[in-house]
From TrEMBL:
Top-level taxon of the source organism: Bacteria
Gene3D superfamilies: Winged helix-like DNA-binding domain superfamily/Winged helix DNA-binding domain
Top-level taxonomy: Bacteria, Bacillati, Actinomycetota, Actinomycetes, Kitasatosporales
Entry protein name: ArsR/SmtB family transcription factor
Alphabetized SMART domains for the sequence: HTH_ARSR
Any Pfam family matching the protein: HTH_20
Segments forming domain HTH arsR-type: 18-112
InterPro entries xrefs: ArsR-like_HTH, HTH_ArsR_DNA-bd_dom, HTH_MetalResp_TranReg, WH-like_DNA-bd_sf, WH_DNA-bd_sf
Keywords: DNA-binding, Transcription, Transcription regulation
Length: 127
């Protein structure tokens, strides 16, 4: 009897699909940024300016809902996700977004910051 060749090890690559730059659509990006939880993710990634694990970005929603928000951001081209070991790392696709929609991301982030200031100021003046 001839010795059997062992089966190749299972693939450990868990590549996630992302749209190429030219496939990123403005309406999809705006839809993704319109949700407060997804905007929180984007603001955190923009502020940190580095890759963060999903667990590094706290959202006051269930794990499955958090996963959904990250998937929406990835599928519309706002973030890039890659597995590093067991962690799913996230990075803002700032270069792609700035090339396609100049000023959009900075304008949205600035507007969100201003909205927070107004909300914070009005909350304390309701006496």
């Amino acid at each position: 009897m001839q010795p059997q060749t062992p089966a190749p090890p299972p693939s450990t690559s868990r590549a996630l699909e992302h749209p190429v730059r030219d496939a990123i659509r403005l309406e999809d990006v705006l839809h993704a940024l319109s949700d407060p939880m997804r905007l929180r993710v984007v603001r955190t990634l923009a502020r940190e300016a580095r890759e963060l694990a999903c667990s590094d970005i706290e959202l006051p929603v269930s794990k499955s809902t958090t996963t959904h928000h990250f998937r929406v951001l990835r599928e519309c081209g706002v973030i890039n996700q890659i597995y590093r070991g067991t962690a799913k790392m996230n990075a803002l696709r700032r270069e792609d977004l700035d090339a396609l929609f100049p000023g959009l991301l900075d304008t949205v982030l600035l507007a969100a910051d201003r909205q927070d200031l107004v909300a914070g100021g009005s909350a304390g003046s309701g006496r």
